[in-house]
Amino acid sequence: MHQIKTFNAIAPEGMQRLEKEKYDINENDHPEGIILRSKKLQTSEIADSVLAIARAGTGVNNIPVESCTERGIVVFNTPGANANAVKELVLMSLLMSVRPVVSGINWVQQLTGSDISEQAEAHKKQFAGHELEGKKLGVIGLGSIGAMVANDAYRLGMEVMGYDPYVSVDTAWSISRRVQRAQDISEIFTTCDFITVHVPLQEKTHHLIGKKEIAMMKNSAHLLNFARAEIVDHSAVLEAINEDELAGFTTDFADENLLHHDRITVLPHLGASTAEAETNSAKMAVRTMKQFIETGIIKRSVNFPAVEMAFHSPYRITVINRNVPNMLGQISAIIADSEINIDNMINRGREDYAYTLVDIDESDEDKIANVVEKLRETEDIIRVRVIKKEEVPY
Ligand SMILES: NC(=O)c1ccc[n+]([C@@H]2O[C@H](COP(=O)([O-])OP(=O)(O)OC[C@H]3O[C@@H](n4cnc5c(N)ncnc54)[C@H](O)[C@@H]3O)[C@@H](O)[C@H]2O)c1
Ligand SMILES: O=C(O)[C@H](O)COP(=O)(O)O
After folding, report:
1. Which of 7, 11, 135, 325 has the fewest beta carbons under 10 Å from its own?
2. Same structural domain for residues 74 and 101?
3. What is the pTM of this model?
C-alpha cells in the first residue's frame, strides 16, 4: 500500500482518485506523499519516507522547497487550477473599490417603517460611486492569474498595462494585444489608477511594493494584493493611506494592523476558495502525485525537471542526482555490470539536480536490489527508487 498524508481540507473529488486498494490516507507518519494547501510545512514534518509533496494550489512559499530539493523530494503545484477563482475576486474587488455597495447593503438592512423604498431613494446619493471604464489598471505579474485579470479588465473598458519581465511564451500568447507592456515597473506605479499584484513570493518579491514604490503612485490610486501578504509592505501602505498619499488598499491577507480602516478592505484569503477551484486543484494535485508514485513521471514540479516516458518494461529505476558530469555513464555502467538490459532511458537536468528514468528488461528482484544498492552508494546520487509496472498504464 502507498501511504499519503494530507494537511488542510483537500477536495474529495481529488482524494477519491486514490483507490482504497492502493492508497492509505493519513494512516501513519511515514508517508510517500504529502498533499496540502496553505499549511506551513516545517522541515521536521517531512519524514525521510517522503518522495513528493503536492501543493493543491499555486504558492509554494509554505513548503521548504530548497531543503526538499537537497533531499531529493519532488515538490509539485497546480498551475492555473485556481486562477479563474482569483481573477473573479480581483474583478469583484476592483468593482467594490469604486462602488460602496457593502455600505449600501448594510445601510438598507437597518431601515424600518413602511416607507423603506422612499427612504432608500432619498438617501442613496451617499452611496454613489465611480466607474472602472476608462480608468487605467496596472497588472504586475502576467502569469495564470495576471493574464486573466488583464484581459477581463480590458473587456470591462479599462485601459490595461502589464509588467512581467519573465512572462512565459504560452501566457504571452494568451494576453490581448491591447494590454500595453510596461518596460519598467515604475511605469505602472506612476501612471495607473489601480494596481494589482500577481507574482510569487520569493526573496526578490518580498516588499516589492514598499514606501518608495507607493510614493511614485498617484494619491488617488488603489492597490490590490491577492498574491501574498509579504509582497506589500503593510506599514508603508497604512502610512500612505493615513497621509492621503494612497486612496485605498484591498488585500486577501489578514493583518491586525489593517483592520477597522474605512479605506482598507481585508479578505480572509478567499482567492481560491470556490468549489470549482478547490476541485480543480485537488484533482490536479492528486493526478500528479499518483502518476509520480506509480510511474516516476514528473509533471508540474517546481524543483525538478519535467520527465515523461511510457512505461512498458517490468521494472523502472528512478534516480535523482546532483547535476555533475558523467552521472549517466556511471548509472548505465552499474546496470550493465549487473548484466541487466536497459530497455529505455531518459535523463533531464534542472539547475543543480537531474532526474533519470531507466526501464529494465529484468524481473529478478535480487539482481535489481543489488543494482539499487550500488547506485545508492554512488557519490552525488541522492535517491533511487524501483517501481514495478502496474496494470494501469499512463
Ligand atoms: N489569494 C489566493 O488565494 C491565491 C490563489 C492563487 C495564487 N495566489 C498567489 O498568486 C501568485 C501568482 O499566481 P499565478 O497562478 O498567476 O502564478 P504564475 O506562476 O502563473 O504567475 C506568476 C507570474 O509572476 C511573474 N513574476 C515573477 N516575478 C516577477 C516580478 N518580480 N515582477 C513581475 N512579474 C514577476 C512570473 O513571470 C509569472 O508570469 C502565486 O504565486 C500565489 O502566491 C494567491
Ligand atoms: O497559492 C494559492 O494557490 C492560494 O493562496 C490558495 O491557497 P489555499 O489553497 O490555502 O486557499
Report:
1. 325
2. no
3. 0.96
